[in-house]
Amino acid sequence: MTTAHVTSPITGPDHSAGSERDPRRGPEARPDLGVDLGRARVSDGSGLWRIARDSGELDVNSPYSYLLWCRDFADTTAVARDAEGRPVGFVTGYLRPDAPRTLFVWQVAVDGSHRGTGVAGALLDSLAARVAAEHGLDRMEATVTPGNAPSDRMFRSYARRHGATVTQEVLFPSTAFPGPDGTGHEPEVLYRIGPLTY
Fold it and tell me: What number is the average pLDDT over the span 147-154?
């Protein structure tokens, strides 16, 4: 698994559940943020890879993996697109096979041109609402490294907006990763957010 990292602090209006919009419809226009939010498309794959690479924070996977992700996990991935339709942010996730009402958030990233505008939080809210409407959603999970304060703030903010609690435990210690003496990677701390009601 790759650490969920956010490269944009949460700011802007509350975009939590309770909106009158049906999340199963097409892209959600967010003129207040200058983006449209919607499902991933295969054509987004290279853009997601670029955003991840340019973040300087994420564990970057191969371009091929982002193309596959956009094909096979489009239902559990949200992409923010600018006025020209280019990806400027994304949240990738999947429903856990052994807990199909739990959304595991794999990566969160926002292009430098849209950081600090609330896009990351809006993406997370939009994706969770869509997954809840289409599959049901009781919990969200993600891993965060101890030094990743923006991700910690983003997930705690999401929990507050949805009246949920956050519990933490080490999922993968440093020694689980390749490298000399487990020093090549910080531990991955599992954040469990719930219960969620939509």
Answer: 93
Q: Name the amino acid, one letter, at 107.
A: Q
DSSP class of residue 176 equals: G
Higher pLDDT, 164 or 24: 164
Distances (CA, A) of 185 to 22, 38, 170, 181, 193: 40, 32, 13, 10, 24
Determine how β-strand 28-30 pairs with β-strand 139-144: unpaired
Q: Is the dihedral of CA 22, 17, 99, 51 positive or negative?
A: positive
- What element of type H or E holds 188? strand 188-194
DSSP 54-87: HHSSS----HHHHHHHHHHSGGGEEEEE-TTS-E
pLDDT: is 15 or 49 the higher one? 49
Taking CA atoms, 69 is separated from 54, 59, 124, 129, 161, in Å, by 18, 15, 17, 20, 28
Whole-number Cα distances in Å, 179 to 113, 174, 176? 34, 9, 9
Query: Two tokens at 15?
Result: 């975009």
